[in-house]
Amino acid sequence: MEQNKDYQILLYYCYAKIDNPEEYREQHHLFCVENNIRGRIIISDEGLNGTVSGLKEDCEKYMAYIHADPRFAKTEFKIDAHEAHAFTKIHVRYKPEIVHSSLRHLDPNVRTGKHLEPEEFKKLKDQEDVVILDVRSNYEHELGRFKNALTLDIDNFRDFPEKVKELEHLKNKKVLTYCTGGIKCEKASAFLLEQGFQDVYQLHGGIIKYGMEAGGEDFEGKCYVFDNRIAVEVNKVNPTIVSRCHICDTPSDRMVNCANPTCNIHVPICEKCGWEMEGACSVECKDDPEKRPYDGTGYYQKKTNGYNPYKGLQRKPNKEQIQKLHGESNHSCI
């Protein structure tokens, strides 16, 4: 029987100037705690970026909270129904950038690539003078990517500027950039324009929105996401598998964290090899004394013992909040 999907997962970002990011970070964190929102949120001088989960009604409150602030009124949320929380904790952190890019001098509100809605991207992507550029990291595009997309050998988005030197021959082409939710493309496309590329576009809302609004056609494989789902289906039109098992090289889109916590590499491993290797990516990792017990999923829940969502806050929780925290501590996190 299909589980009821009473929860939602929200993916969003907004480039907007925040004059007091540390103070706002604390306010934002408290709102999440008091409304049972969990996930990862980055607050910066240049805006905010997050993936969160919660009951539908709590997510609606959270979106209303964001939109009520004039700085973030334009924020667009990608919303996925889910059967449970996709996170066990709430983390709201201050960082210099909302996505680590080494391109802090660029402001997407001033100049960035032309935004293409999913249907516009779909119509344009196969034209002869077009290059589809994946700006994500290796582990992401190895799991899934657009048909005929150009991928870059990068382990982190901050390596993107250096790799652009290899794309000089494409300056006279239409370059269509894409990523998971759109945030990396804001600065990637801006940087391409700065480097002399003339006709630069970006898939508005990224792969996730393309799957929701355009059926995901020609996106091959699965899309890597940054919550406990790990990978999601995108293509409802002509799906295929492009990733291969790290052990036996057969087609597999089953993402696994290596059972050896020291390694913890995240790679596709088919079910057969998963059981044979006990969740490890190599014989060395299988024989490691610290190897975690394998349950067939390859997902290892981080321990939440002693987790206190109010830790580090300047504003202390009131009596009701403390009682609520202690009351919930007797239940395991989803």
From TrEMBL:
A GO BP annotation: tRNA modification
Pfam families in the record: Rhodanese (PF00581), Rhodanese_C (PF12368), UPF0176_N (PF17773)
InterPro entries attached to this UniProt entry: Rhodanese-like_dom, Rhodanese-like_dom_sf, Rhodanese_C, TrhO, TRHO_N
Positions of the Rhodanese domain: 126-219
UniProt key word tRNA processing: yes
E.C. number(s) listed in UniProt: 1.14.-.-
Catalyzed reactions per annotation: uridine(34) in tRNA + AH2 + O2 = 5-hydroxyuridine(34) in tRNA + A + H2O
Keyword Iron-sulfur belongs to the record: no
Family designation: Belongs to the TrhO family.
Protein name, UniProt field: tRNA uridine(34) hydroxylase
Lineage: Bacteria, Pseudomonadati, Bacteroidota, Cytophagia, Cytophagales
Gene that specifies this protein: trhO
